[in-house]
């Protein structure tokens, strides 16, 4: 199995968490942002990574979008499962997964890249890094006004994710797609002191899930 990815993408991290949770052997191919389109569009019709190739020499098997990758893995590698036994709970876990993917992962991206080009510039002040960050900001329309809206969405997300304060699972009594998606899509915030200091419970769960999935901890949480 081969995962086409950007090494720093939180959506690719989301796919890796699912692969790791299910203890599947896989290789990664790190693509160059921009040029990646030449590789992935003919396979999936999309311009985004991650893309999973269950059979690397048959590109027709390619699966684009991390949510579709979750579904594919659950149907082909059922154990260990991230489907919840109670149907209502499982439905809610997938709803959270979709919201995390479509709304919160994007909000994280806005807040993270804005921070990297301002207070967080010292993470990598090199011209090449700042150039890439500026290209990303322009590509996604990361303006100060949009960043403010993203911060509000993240504030609301902390309320929705508050079950993590009391127990290791967002829904029900076992790990679900909601836990995997949240652990990946909020992980870039671990580098931002305001988030790291205000939401210690969040990053404790993010770290626990990474450990359970055999995935290296994200920047800001390494030991
Ligand atoms: N909903 C998609 C989002 C994936 C996504 O936004 N990937 C970004 C990297 S973090 C990407 O490939 N961007 C490049 C582009 O849009 O051209 C998923 O879950 O796979």
TrEMBL record:
Origin species? Euhalothece natronophila Z-M001
What positions does the domain GST N-terminal occupy?
1-81
Identify this protein by name. Glutathione S-transferase
An example Gene Ontology molecular-function term? transferase activity
Q: Which UniProt keywords apply?
A: Transferase
Q: Which Gene3D superfamilies match?
A: 1.20.1050.10, Glutaredoxin (3.40.30.10)
Which Pfam families does the entry link to?
GST_C, GST_N_3
InterPro entries noted in UniProt:
Glutathione-S-Trfase_C_sf (IPR036282), Glutathione_S-Trfase_N (IPR004045), GST_C (IPR004046), Thioredoxin-like_sf (IPR036249)
Q: Is Lyase included in the keywords of this UniProt record?
A: no
Note the superkingdom of the native organism. Answer: Bacteria
């Amino acid at each position: 199995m081969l995962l086409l990815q950007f090494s720093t993408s939180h959506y690719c991290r989301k796919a890796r968490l699912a692969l790791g949770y299910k203890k599947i052997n896989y290789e990664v191919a790190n693509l160059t942002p921009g040029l990646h389109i030449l590789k992935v569009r003919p396979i999936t019709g999309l311009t985004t990574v991650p893309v999973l190739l269950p059979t690397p020499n048959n590109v027709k098997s390619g699966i684009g979008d991390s949510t579709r990758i979750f579904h594919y893995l659950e149907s082909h590698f059922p154990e260990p499962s991230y489907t919840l036994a109670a149907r209502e709970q499982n439905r809610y876990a997938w709803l959270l997964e979709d919201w995390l993917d479509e709304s919160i992962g994007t909000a994280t991206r806005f807040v993270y890249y804005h921070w990297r080009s301002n207070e967080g510039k010292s993470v990598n002040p090199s011209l090449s890094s700042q150039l890439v960050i500026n290209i990303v900001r322009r590509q996604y329309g990361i303006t100060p006004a949009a960043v403010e809206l993203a911060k509000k969405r993240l504030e609301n997300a902390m309320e929705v994710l508050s079950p993590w304060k009391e127990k290791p699972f967002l829904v029900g009594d076992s790990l679900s797609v909601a836990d995997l998606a949240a652990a990946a899509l909020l992980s870039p915030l671990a580098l931002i002191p305001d988030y790291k200091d205000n939401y210690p419970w969040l990053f404790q769960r993010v770290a626990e899930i990474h450990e359970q999935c055999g995935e290296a901890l994200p920047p800001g949480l390494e030991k």
